[in-house]
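Fill in residues.
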């Protein structure tokens, strides 16, 4: 592929410029430069004695609600303090250059929204939407930041205001179904888009990782942005190996310059 002076292959710029519908599929790597640890790095320091894959399960919450709730409170505090980075901002800016753009994120933070993205589908829920583990009633967090930075601290989950059962984080754990409407919206968008970007995700967790494959099968151009190689590298039309906060602004510059 020929490179523009932004080092973004011209085929990528061309595909974006002629696109009617674009899907931006994101993972934890997009928020990494905001200081939010990626999922597979979120167990550093005192948390490193746990296994993320084991903590993010309904079984772990049942067995050790204080450990799991403590971990999510620590991550929620991190997310509340974080600000959107250049990648979030570039993605919001890109939406102004294409007729239709949907952000489909696996992230449980709200940095896409805070960067100005309006259409955001959260496949794995949110750190900021706790609900009852028994009756499902949505719960309201107090405004104050959770205590911090007590990494590794166990915290008992609060009791549901309706039934008294433990409150759980409003995220999707392993073995749980994705929110149906959101998943259908994401799947339809992937199957109908002209270009899909997969940014900052290890592309390991299903069914989310199916989205780039669905887009490819439907004939879309698939571009990946990640500093490392993932299982998607061999399928993507183009792999931009680099940090999202560095690559995405260059991409937006390239697209707006060639209008
Ligand atoms: C940068 C960067 C920078 C760094 N710039 N990039 C088929 C085979 C085997 C198992 C399954 C299967 N299908 C389904 C399953 C089971 C399971 C699964 O997928 N397991 C796999 C691990 C194999 N899936 C499920 O259980 C799903 N549910 C389901 O299938 O329901 C049906 C069912 C019902 C009943 C019984 C059985 C099945 C649900 C999956 C939910 C995942 N939830 C989590 C936790 C959410 C809450 C939380 O955050 O704690 O979602 S897991 C975790 O992984 C989190 C993330 O959203 C998700 C994806 O991770 P992500 O975003 O890719 O982050 P990382 O850390 O992995 O990668 C970061 C990337 O960024 C890296 O590549 C870096 O290089 C890169 N990066 N800096 C750009 N600056
Ligand atoms: Zn309840």
């Amino acid at each position: 592929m020929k490179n523009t002076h932004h080092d973004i292959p011209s085929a990528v710029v061309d595909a974006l410029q002629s696109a009617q519908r674009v899907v931006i599929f994101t993972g934890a790597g997009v928020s990494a430069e905001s200081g939010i640890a990626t999922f597979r790095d979120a167990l550093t320091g005192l948390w490193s004695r746990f296994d993320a894959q084991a903590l993010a399960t309904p079984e772990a919450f049942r067995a050790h609600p204080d450990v799991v709730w403590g971990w999510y409170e620590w991550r929620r505090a991190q997310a509340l303090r974080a600000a959107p980075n250049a990648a979030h901002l570039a993605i919001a800016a890109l939406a102004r250059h294409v007729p239709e753009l949907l952000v489909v994120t696996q992230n449980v933070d709200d940095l896409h929204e805070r960067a100005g993205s309006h259409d955001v589908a959260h496949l794995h829920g949110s750190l900021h939407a706790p609900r009852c583990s028994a009756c499902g009633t949505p719960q309201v967090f107090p405004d104050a930041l959770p205590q911090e930075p007590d990494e590794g601290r166990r915290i008992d989950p609060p009791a549901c205001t309706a039934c008294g059962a433990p409150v759980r984080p409003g995220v999707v754990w392993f073995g749980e179904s994705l929110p149906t409407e959101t998943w259908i919206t994401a799947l339809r968008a992937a199957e109908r888009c002209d270009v899909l970007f997969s940014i900052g995700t290890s592309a390991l967790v299903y069914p989310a990782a199916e989205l780039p494959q669905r887009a490819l099968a439907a004939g879309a151009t698939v571009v990946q942005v990640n500093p490392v190689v993932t299982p998607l590298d061999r399928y993507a039309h183009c792999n931009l190996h680099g940090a999202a906060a560095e690559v995405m602004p260059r991409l937006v510059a390239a697209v707006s310059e060639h209008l």
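The beta strands are 21-26, 100-105, 120-122, 131-132, 167-168, 195-199, 221-225, 238-240.
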